[in-house]
Amino acid sequence: GRRAQMGYVAVNPKEIPYGTKLWIVGHGNSKFVYGYALAADTGGAMLKGKNFVDLYYDTYYECVLNGVKHVDVYVLE
Predict the structure, then answer these.
(1) Residue by residue, what is the 3-state secondary structure of 47-73?
(2) What per-residue confidence (pLDDT) applies to 19?
(3) Which one-letter DSSP state was computed for residue 16?
(4) Residues 9, 54, 37, CA angle at the centre, nearest 5°?
(5) Which of 12, 13, 53, 66 has a 20 to 30 A CA-CA distance from 76?
(6) DSSP 3-state of 45
(7) So what's the pLDDT on residue 1?
(8) Residue 46 phi/psi, 5° resolution?
């Protein structure tokens, strides 16, 4: 995968190929917006089917603040 940075997300490449451009927002009435992202890496949770995407954040605080969320992922390309 690519070096981790904001806007890069981990996916299962069998479901979403690397390089796919995505738009990620909170599910339902959630006001959460991650925004534009690029499928750039993978991880064990994705390969085991436990996560659909893993969002990257720059700080530990942002990771804790956002935790586990149900999101809608739109494939742009």
Answers:
(1) HCCCCCEEECCCCHHHHHHHCCCCEEE
(2) 94
(3) S
(4) 25
(5) 66
(6) helix
(7) 64
(8) -70, -40
Report residues of the chain scoring pLDDT below 70. 1, 50
pTM score, whole prediction: 0.83
Q: Residues 26, 27, 28, CA angle at the centre, nearest 5°?
A: 120
Q: How far apart are CA 31 and CA 10, in angstroms?
A: 22
Contacts 24+ apart (CB under 8 A), 23-28: 23/73, 23/74, 23/76, 24/53, 24/55, 24/71, 24/72, 24/73, 24/74, 25/71, 25/72, 25/74, 26/69, 26/70, 26/71, 26/72, 27/69, 27/70, 27/71, 27/72, 28/70
Contact of 9 with 48, CB cutoff 8 Å? no
Q: What is the pLDDT of residue 23?
A: 97
